Every structure is written in C-alpha cells, then in structure tokens.
Amino acid sequence: MAGEVAGPGVASAEAAGGGVAAGNAGRDRVHVITHLPGDGVGPEVTEVARVCVDAVAAQRGFGVEWRGCQLGGRHYLTTGEVLPDPALAELRQSDAILLGAVGTPEVPPGVLERGLLLRLRFELDLYVNLRPSKLRPGIGGAVGKHGFDDLDLVIVRENTEGLYAGAGGTVHRGTEFETSTEESLNTWAGIRRCVRYASQLAATRSGRLTLVHKTNVLTHAGDLWYRVAREVAAEDGVELSYAHVDAACLWMVDDPKRFDVIVTDNLFGDILSDLGAALTGGLGYAPSGNINPDRTVPSIFEPVHGSAPDIAGKGLANPAGAVLSAALMLDHLGESAAAADLESAVNGILATGAPASTGEWEKALLTRLADGGRLG
User: What is the mean pLDDT of the chain?
Assistant: First the structure.
C-alpha cells in the first residue's frame, strides 16, 4: 500500500513513493490523514475506504495527503512495541486517522486494547465516541417490524472516563483473599463537554436528547450525569428525556423510534452501541468515530468489527463499515458533501444487493461515486 512503512513511524505517501501528495498541487484544502491499517481484514477494508476517499476528493475539489503507520498485533509480535512515544508524536501531526481493526489470536487480551486503542483515546483526549445506528436499504435488521424511519439514532458515548479510565487494582493475587476493584471516574468537566456535543448534535436533528444511565443504583455518578445533562439541555434548548440503561436496551429493540440522540457513559455506551449495530445489520455495517470536537488533535475513525483473522486475505471482507467510517471522518473534516457521497454510494449498493467480495465492493463503490453516488 502506498505510503505505508513496516515500522511504527509515520511516513507521507509522497516520501514513500506513493505520489499521492503531488496530486494535491493547487488545491485549496488538503487534509493530512494517517492510515493505520491494523491486522487481519483491517488493511483490506480500509484500503477500499482510502480509494473511495481519493475518488470523492477528486470530485469535490479537495486534496488528501495520506501517511502510513503500522501498529497492531503483527507489529507487537515482531517488535514488542504497542505504541512507541515517537509514533504517537507523529500521529499528532495528522488531521485525522483512519484505523483498521487490530488484534491477532497470538496477542493476549488487553495488550492492544489498553496499550494502543485506549491509550490513543486518552492521550489524544478523544472524549466523544460517535456511533450511528441506522437501518439501511437492503439490510434486514434483527427485528422484522422495524422500518427505515424507526431506527435512525446516534449514540454519543463518553470516551475517556468511567470504568475504562483504568482506576482500580488487584491485591493478594493468587490467594483466597485476592481482591480486584474497578473504579468509575466521572468528572463534571468530562460529562459536560460530552453532553454538550450530544446536545448540539441533537439540535441539528430532531431536538431530542436522551440521557441513559442507572441513576436508581449508581446514585453518585448518575446524579452528576443527570444534573449536568439538565443544565446543558436547557442552555441549548433541546428536549431532554431519561432512561435507565436496562430499559433503554428493551426500547431499542421494541420501540427504537423513541430515540434520536443518546448520550451515556463509557461502559453503557459500549454496550448500547453494539446492540444498535446488531439491530441494523451487524458490526460489519457499523461505523464509528473517536472524536476530539476541539480539533486540537487528530480524531480517529474506524469500523467497529474485529480483525476477523479467519477470513483475512480471502477477499471476503465487507468494507461497508470502513467506508461509512471514512464518511464520518470527512464530515468531521468539513467535507460534508463528500461524506454524503460515500454514504449514498454504500446505501445504493446495499439497496441492490451487497457484493460477495471485497473487490466487487470496491468496483461497485467507485462506479456509484463516478455517477454521483445515486441510488437505484
């Protein structure tokens, strides 16, 4: 792949011989995007997303300077490195990062999750995890009665606090008195900025925002979330409702139309967003963004499916989630028309029957993008 290097350092496509940056001469807008392909099917699906981004960039009059970075399971097994500080420093110089799934069966659980994915979120302060859940043409949802108008919601998950912050520990390991604790950390500032993002997003959609928590049991954290959410919603003039997380799971299955924008904490958001993916065709169609709305650092966009080593290299991977993640990335970079082109192209392909191979997906996407991404 043009612009990618074997080590963890980030190299521009031009420096690596890809020639991509040279094609940006004379363009007013050039976005620096690092491609971190990952493991398994990650390189396959994100390469399709790259090609599609280049296609819409050419049509919409902006440039992309691709940089490459190899991190993940293969790199860890080869070098023992998860996220070296120099690589992190170079990633900071990007406008955005397109990330493929990481992980191989040989790497123990937690090594890449905490050392790479969570560290990137914490170090870059990517405090919003954005997970749209949308039923698309041609995709059978998990619940047959759901129509397209019934299931089109967005989950805004706080991404740097809660139970995933890493507070806690284990004492007396290996004895009958072994004790393990996980602590949920919730700050007023962290909650407020996440709710603010969700509230402003809701204002651009239906004006409805739902806080999901468990205030009847988690009385301390839940109370703080509820008080902050009420204040922010009132300031932004959006309608705020509340649901316990267990009730929200039930309603997402039985009556998802009651939700438009959901805001919730790190753990609950992790669970709810996977449920949303299951209801809308599966993880293969689910995009995500790990976002710093302040734009002081690059945000990371990735399909939420795993690395699927069992089908890696067979040309069977579905790139829809990666392409839709690239659409979220372009929208974040201010290229909303190009983002809409990508989403329309995916929707059009799904409406007529999803291709059976990664290569067929790429051909179909480029054909639709050349035709304006139109349906039908």
Answer: 92
For residue 247, give both structure tokens: 């009730």
Alpha-carbon gap, residue 186 to 194, rounded angstroms: 11
173 is a domain residue? no
Q: Which residues contact 354 (CB under 8 A, 6 or more apart)?
A: 138, 318, 320, 361
**Mean pLDDT (whole number) for 15-32:** 61
Q: Give the CA angle between residues 290, 113, 301 to the nearest 5°.
A: 25
Q: Please name every residue paired with 131 in a beta bridge, in sequence order, or none if there are none.
A: 155
> Is residue 36 classed as helix, strand or coil in its secondary structure?
strand
Q: How many Å apart are CA 338 and CA 336, to the nearest integer?
A: 5
How much of the chain is in helix, strand and coil states, percent to nearest 5? Answer: 45, 15, 40
| Weakest mean pLDDT among 16-30, 148-162, 246-260 | 16-30
205/242 same-domain check: yes
- Domain region containing 297: 1-134+284-376
Which neighbouring-strand residues pair with 128? 158, 291
For 253, other C-beta atoms within 10 Å of its C-beta total: 14
Residue ending a domain, among 226, 258, 280, is 280
Q: Is residue 240 part of a domain?
A: yes
Q: Is 177 among the domain residues?
A: no
How many CB atoms sit inside 10 A of residue 372's CB? Answer: 11
Q: Which two tokens stand for residue 296?
A: 């002081």
Q: 24: how many CB neighbours lie within 10 A of its CB? A: 16
Task: Verify that 152 and 258 share a domain, yes or no.
Answer: yes
Task: List active site positions.
Answer: 164, 214, 246, 270, 274
Number of H helices, E strands in the chain: 12, 13
pTM: 0.91
Question: Considering the domain boundaries, does residue 190 fall inside one?
Answer: yes
User: For residues 282 and 110, what is the distance between their CA atoms, to the nearest angstrom?
Assistant: 24
CATH code of the domain covering residue 14: 3.40.718.10
Give the total number of structural domains in the chain: 2
Q: What confidence score (pLDDT) does residue 9 get?
A: 64
